[in-house]
Specification:
The chain has one helix spanning 2-8, and strands at 13-20, 33-40. The protein starts with a helix and ends with a strand. 5% of the residues are buried. The protein has one helix and two strands.
Length: 43
């Protein structure tokens, strides 16, 4: 994801964040979490 962000904005850096921002008891998601992706110069 971060690579696509840096390519879209023609930047050396890319940052992407996804995850759950709220608890969903019906799906048994009982903790908040996030996944972070960072790219620099295509890596």
């Amino acid at each position: 994801m971060a690579l696509n962000v840096s390519n879209s904005f023609m930047s050396n850096f890319g940052l992407a964040i996804t995850g759950y921002a709220t608890l969903v008891s019906d799906d048994k998601i009982d903790s908040l979490h996030a996944f972070i992706s960072i790219s620099y110069e295509g890596k």
